[in-house]
Amino acid sequence: MEDKIELKRTLNVFDATSIGIGAIVGAGIFVVTGISAGLAGPAVVLSVLISGAIASLTALSFAELSSAIPKEGEAYAYAHETISPFAGFMVGWLWLVSNIVAGAAISIGLASYIAILVPVLPVKVVAIFSCIIVTLVNLFGIKESSLVNNVLVLVKISVLCFFIAVGIFHLTPKNLVPLMPNGWIGVFQGAALIFFAYAGFARITTVAEEVKNPERTIPMSILLSLGICMALYVLTSFTAVGLVSYRDLASSGSPLSDAAMATGNPLASLVVTLGAITATTSVLLTTIIGLSRVSFAMSRNLQLPRFVGKLHARFRTPYISIIILGVAMTLLASFADLRQVVAVSSFASICYYATTNVSALLLRERTRPRIGAFKVPLYPVFPLLGLASCIMLIFFLAYDSILIGTFAAITGAVYYLTRKQITRNDIQHPSQKVH
Q1: Most exposed: 37, 109, 163, 244, by fewest CB within 10 Å?
Q2: CATH code at 258?
Q3: Total number of domains constituting the chain
Q4: What pLDDT, on a 0 to 100 scale, did the predictor assign at position 410?
Q5: Is 73 left (phi over 0), alpha (psi -120 to 50) or beta?
Q6: pTM given for the model
Q7: What is the domain range of residue 35?
């Protein structure tokens, strides 16, 4: 009999929602809020709302697709199934590139907050060790990683609620004017960057084969995690720009800690700093989870080398992909620039989320009920709006991030075509299982 590569279903709704929140709340709100405020000014709250609305439209497509195609690999699996193997590969490739880069950036954000508590520690060194530790945790299994993540998620939600509760009583009205120093252009530029902060809402779909009752659990966890995080983001960003000038936030590597310090309460700043460390650790943890599972899915479809998808005999984790990606992230953390990698990650995220909306459109077309020889019309409003809004956001990103993202896409296409020539027989049978 065929020895299939299978993963264990151990995650419930709470675990899945926790992974989603763990992937969303982190560097985005604790670090990127300052960068986005520099573009949008106090109207960064509008940037958060716009990005959240766009993410919500795409989340509906993810919820629909995850119910119909409960497979490991997130947007990669959907594009592979509904569009073509090549489209799936390109989505998976961009996902891997963007999240390796984003993981390095998150580790730098984590190290920046740790440096507040222990100034003698070099930021780059702390970032490197953070990547190594999180990689080791992921090697021991998804349930163990999930348990650690659940604790981290509860802590960071509590910290953000504390920040809002304390800060809301110390707002300075003059910090809220001018509302839009760079006009609507700045607001949309801020929204394009803050999209990085929402990019983890579909992370749970990367572990679809490790979720109990995935057809129900995954859509519910996606919408729950995104809704909770949108509310937290709006309140947190409003509190931050009300406490500190947007100019000061833009130049800070730890904007929420600086905002908490403006309350005159040193304890508030300490709590927020600890919360930021917890939050970024949680996102770093789920980033490795997602990266390893997408590469696992691509390996199983023979679009990456077979050894990448090999599972550990005891822990049943794709340990080789975890090690490879963890090393890549660790090396990148030694020289990554936070602002630029956030823009590159946002570009790639927007691209593969746009493709997910295309997948939802194609799924609708294939599954429409018939009356006789005619299909019953279904109006895919949300996938169309999600696709259009993703495309719109791309034009508000910096040109260098678009160029770097395009170069990464071209590199992936060249790799795919080269590998297809070498392993032509395998690629012609994508459903073939790895022995």
Answers
A1: 244
A2: 1.20.1740.10
A3: 1
A4: 92
A5: left
A6: 0.75
A7: 13-366+375-427
